[in-house]
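Example (one chain per record):
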Amino acid sequence: MADEKHFRVDFHTHIIPGNFPDLAEKYGDERFPTLKHTCDCGAEIYRNGGLFRKIDHLAWDPKKRIEQMDKEGIDVQVLSPIPVTFTYWADADKCLELSQVQNDFIAATVKEYPDRFAGLGTVPLQNAELAIAEMERCINELGLVGIEVGSNVNGQNFDEPEIQKFLEAAAKMDVPVFVHPWATVGQERMPRHRFMYCIGMPSETALAAASVIYSGILDRHPNLKLCFAHGGGSFPYVLARIDQAWESWPDSRKTEEKPSHYANKFYFDTLVYDPQNLQFMINKFGTDKLIAGSDFPFVLREVPSGKVVDVMENLSEEDKKKMLGENAIEFLGLKKEDFIKKAAANTSEN
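Predicted structure:
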């Protein structure tokens, strides 16, 4: 393992199959993302007939990822799909087709390198029945350990009945859910300056978290495990205002307690970059619900995962251990020892 002092898990990483299917051509719809390789180590993702993002082999090659992980001192990455591939706007059966390709790829990658990776699946969230069935396949057949979902479904928030059905099933199955922003609010006002990434995404995540709370699902299913990306976006910073709104308009309440009570049940990744921001989150939520994650391998990522935790001198070693690895393991229902045993077995085989 990379660091004997801290077992390091990068909870927030994305991966895409190198042979990503071209559903745009298959179905004559350019809204589907496509992957075009430009060389052995580079590729471009296209959507709506234009370039969406340039990526390199770290986005699809597990061997190259492991080399980078070793350089950065990361023991385990949790793999999840790139949000642009969610495609909730599509017919549910076509979205399921794309979901299954990605889930199979992530499961195969984990199976090949079980000491270095764990995997999250994706589901056609626009159709609860199909989404639940694919979640069951991910967990029971593929060996994935959770599901990544987008922050809304075609503009519908998490308090909509169809999405609630899926979340209720996840709670009953004890499946952890990672919520990542996508299709953000206010996109028409953010065509310049990359504001979609730095303003839209944090706002979108706050809306998702608040809609979960106001739905009342955490009263019905208090064991539902949710982790919100990018430190919860702007949610932690507007939570006091959400509480005040709950107090001010009792006619809009659907929960037994005020929103901050339920916010303490959430997990958040630590991708906030600034130690003062992380300290604010620690003051709000404690250190048990904060999970290091980097957004690997994209340009906005933290290098290495958990850097913001490392630089905080006031934290105890116990708290650093929790945030750098142990909280992720607990959230996913795994055991650190399992990865260590797999790593030892891999070493002996080689």
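Caption: The two ends are 15 Å apart (CA to CA).
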